[in-house]
Each structure stands twice: as structure tokens, then as C-alpha cells.
């Protein structure tokens, strides 16, 4: 399979998909796309309002539809944390693209998403972060082509490290 230049970032909220993604896109000379922003534009509502008004199942249906409609190349794509629930979307995004799991540990997650009200995060009272973390962890690990630990503050060194890991993967991907 031929690589289309896309780098698909997956991981929990607060794992750095948008923050690292923007810097990685700039470093690699690629476009950047935040799928949460596409969902919000599609629905004309913030993510949390979609959940509040229509529910999580509806949000996931919209998310899957938006992800399956993506047709881009040479783009760093920051997915929403729940994108991994859609096998078809993950398969679609992985067709020719590389899926990078930005792994963070639970204490880092809890620290980074402590201000959940200002993040546009779809928080659910019956799904505390620790439970979601345990539920999603094996899904991210199964889907990922590459895993990058991202527990530390974002620096230029971290962006360069991620850039090198992706290059190493792509050199074996295109050679095989």
C-alpha cells in the first residue's frame, strides 16, 4: 500500500493530538486538520453541546460519518478521543496513512484535562476519565501503527522525536 502522506493522531483527550499535531504538521510541511472542529462545523455546535442535546451515540455517528468522508493527503489529522470506537473510520484513516497513538499515563491525563469545561471535551458523568482510559487503551494499542509516549511537556525536542519515529516507520513501510 502506498503512503498518502497522512499522519493520523489518536489518543485520549489531553494526549497532545491538537497541540503536537499543529507543530508536527509545521515541522513536516503538511496541512493540519482537527476532526473535532469538523464535527462542530458540521453540527454548528461545540462537542459538549452535541453530547448534551443529542447524546454520545449521536456524536459517535456524526464522528464516524465525518471521518469516513475525509479525503485528504499530506495532512496531520488530529482525531477526537472517541474516534477509535469506529473500526471502519480507523481502517479508512489507516488506508495509506500512518496512525500514531499519543500515549499518556493516567496521572498525566487527569492533570491535563482538569479544566474540562474549557476543552470542548465530551465529558459524561457516568464515564469518569479513569474508566474511559481503561476502556480505550486496548483500542488505541490495537489500531496504532506507531506509539509515541507523550507524558512530558511539549518542546521542540518532543516534536523532533515524534518526527524521527514517524520517519523510521515510514522508511520500513515504504521499503516493505
TrEMBL record:
This is Shikimate kinase. It comes from Arenicella chitinivorans. Catalyzes the specific phosphorylation of the 3-hydroxyl group of shikimic acid using ATP as a cosubstrate. The gene is aroK. Pfam families: SKI. Binds 1 Mg(2+) ion per subunit. HAMAP family: Shikimate_kinase. Keywords: Amino-acid biosynthesis, Aromatic amino acid biosynthesis, ATP-binding, Cytoplasm, Kinase, Magnesium, Metal-binding, Nucleotide-binding, Transferase. Monomer. Mg(2+) binds at residue 18. One of its GO terms (cellular component) is cytosol. It catalyses: shikimate + ATP = 3-phosphoshikimate + ADP + H(+). Its cofactor is Mg(2+). ATP binds at residues 14-19, 119. Substrate binds at residues 36, 60, 81, 136. One of its GO terms (biological process) is aromatic amino acid family biosynthetic process. Belongs to the shikimate kinase family.
Amino acid at each position: 500500500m502506498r503512503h498518502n502522506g497522512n499522519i493520523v493522531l489518536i489518543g485520549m483527550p489531553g494526549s497532545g493530538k491538537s497541540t503536537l499535531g499543529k507543530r508536527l504538521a509545521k515541522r513536516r510541511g503538511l496541512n493540519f486538520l482537527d476532526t473535532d472542529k469538523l464535527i462542530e462545523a458540521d453540527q454548528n455546535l461545540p462537542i459538549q453541546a452535541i453530547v448534551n442535546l443529542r447524546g454520545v451515540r449521536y456524536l459517535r455517528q456524526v464522528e464516524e460519518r465525518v471521518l469516513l468522508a475525509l479525503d485528504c493527503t499530506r495532512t496531520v489529522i488530529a482525531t477526537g478521543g472517541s474516534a477509535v470506537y469506529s473500526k471502519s473510520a480507523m481502517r479508512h484513516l489507516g488506508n495509506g496513512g500512518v496512525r500514531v497513538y499519543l500515549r499518556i499515563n493516567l496521572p498525566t491525563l487527569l492533570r491535563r484535562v482538569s479544566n474540562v469545561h474549557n476543552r470542548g471535551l465530551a465529558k459524561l458523568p457516568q464515564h469518569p476519565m479513569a474508566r474511559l482510559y481503561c476502556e480505550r487503551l486496548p483500542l488505541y494499542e490495537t489500531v496504532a501503527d506507531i506509539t509515541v509516549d507523550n507524558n512530558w511537556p511539549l518542546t521542540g525536542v518532543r516534536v523532533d522525536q515524534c518526527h524521527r519515529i514517524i520517519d523510521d516507520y515510514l522508511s520500513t513501510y515504504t521499503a516493505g
